Each structure stands twice: as C-alpha cells, then as structure tokens.
C-alpha cells in the first residue's frame, strides 16, 4: 500500500500559519512599542518561531497520516481479542509512555524545577504525571470493557481533588491544575483516543461516541490527583524533618 506522506500537507501548513501569525503580530507590536529587544535577541526569537512553524507542521502531518490511523487500527485489533483484560495493562503502559514523551509535560517540569529552585525535581514531576495518566488510561480501558458510565469516575475524582486541596499547599494546588491541561497534549489525544474509539467500535454493545470518548476527561483529572498526592507527601516529609530538627535541638 502506497502512502503519500505529503497528502493534505498544504492544509496543515495553513492551519499552523493561522495559529502562529496572530502570536507573531502581537509580539511585533510589543517589540516596536514596549520591548525594544536588541537585534541578536530578535533574530533568536524569529529562528525559534521558524523552527516552531515547521516542527508543528511536520508533527501534525505525522498525526494525520500515522498516529490516528495506527491508533484506530490497534484499537480495532485489540478489541477483537478473546481476553479483553489485557487492554488494561496495555492502556497503563501506553499512557505512561505517551506522557513520558509529551513535550508540554517536559516544559512544565522544567519550569517547576526552575521556579522552585530544585525543591520539586523535574524527574519526580515527570514520573508523577506519567503514572497518574497511566492509571487513568487503564481505568478508561476498564470503563470501555465493562461499560461503566464516565461520571462514576469524574464526580468522585473531582470531589476527592477538592478535599485534597484543603490539605495541600497553594503551590502544589496551582501546579496540579496546570498539569491537568498539560497532560492532555497531542501524544495522548492523537494516539490513545483513536485507539479507544477503535476498541469501542468493535466491542458489542459499546457506542464509540459514548464509550470511546471521555478518556481525555479522565486524563485531565489524573494529574491533578497525582500532583496533589505528591504535595501531601512533601508536606509529611517537611513535618518529619521539622520534628527531627526539634528533637536534635
């Protein structure tokens, strides 16, 4: 089967340009009237925008011709297997790997480590988010197999998050809710959602619209709970250090 890797590439270029041009216009406005950055810095920014444009274009083209078809095909094949329980560990593994490779997650972890002065290491955040998303994908697979309504997970999950906020610090609360948006990036959306829709399509009694979708809601919730849990563990660690210091004094 011959695949034209540049099929529809012109439309992708248009979409990326349509998204980036307003940002470029705003930047130029601030550069002219407020920022007045030196030419060397300006050229670095323009080079970064140029690389961003082509990076996004090639990534989205890869999504259209590779990720989406591959994810849906995998879901169709796995959904026809006799032992459906294997979807749960497969979902866990794919959720972990997708989050581990998510560029937006890496950037968030870098910023958290930088702003916290190394108090929250990027590796700790990376594994926390990856495990949280992996659990949510595994639960999504269980939901599709058994036919559990989505709100059975969403409502208790957000109620638990609100309770955990009471015992967490403002820093971890802010990071947690930002993490929820970052984790639902292109790696998760393009591949795993397509796979879940493929599974729901071939499973008897499942509706691709009702059962295949809804995974992103769980993915957005899981980093909130995992980061808040991390905040509670950090809080216990700090209290333990304080008690040790007091006893030594």
UniProtKB/TrEMBL annotation:
Keywords: Membrane, Transmembrane, Transmembrane helix. Pfam families: DUF1538. The keyword Cytoplasm does not apply. It comes from the Bacteria. The chain crosses the membrane at residues 12-33, 45-64, 84-105, 126-145, 151-169, 181-203, 215-235. This is DUF1538 domain-containing protein.
């Amino acid at each position: 089967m011959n695949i034209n890797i540049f099929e529809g590439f012109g439309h992708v270029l248009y979409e990326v340009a349509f998204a980036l041009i307003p940002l470029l216009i705003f930047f130029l406005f601030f550069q002219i009237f407020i920022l007045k950055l030196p030419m060397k810095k300006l050229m670095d920014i323009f080079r970064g925008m140029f690389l961003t444009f082509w990076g996004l274009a090639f990534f989205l083209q890869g999504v259209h011709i590779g990720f989406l078809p591959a994810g849906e095909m995998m879901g169709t094949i796995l959904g026809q297997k006799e032992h459906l329980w294997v979807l749960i560990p497969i979902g866990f593994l794919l959720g972990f790997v997708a989050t581990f490779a998510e560029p937006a997650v890496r950037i968030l972890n870098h910023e958290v480590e930088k702003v916290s002065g190394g108090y929250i290491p990027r590796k700790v955040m990376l594994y926390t988010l990856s495990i949280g998303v992996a659990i949510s994908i595994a639960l999504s697979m269980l939901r599709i197999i058994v036919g559990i309504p989505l709100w059975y997970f969403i409502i208790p999950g957000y109620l638990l998050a609100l309770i955990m906020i009471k015992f967490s610090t403002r820093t971890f609360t802010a990071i947690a809710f930002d993490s929820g948006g970052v984790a639902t990036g292109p790696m998760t959306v393009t591949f795993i959602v397509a796979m879940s829709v493929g599974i729901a399509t071939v499973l008897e009694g499942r509706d691709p619209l009702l059962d295949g979708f809804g995974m992103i809601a769980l993915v957005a919730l899981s980093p909130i709970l995992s980061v808040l849990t991390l905040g509670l563990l950090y809080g216990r660690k700090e209290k333990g250090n304080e008690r040790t210091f007091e006893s030594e004094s």
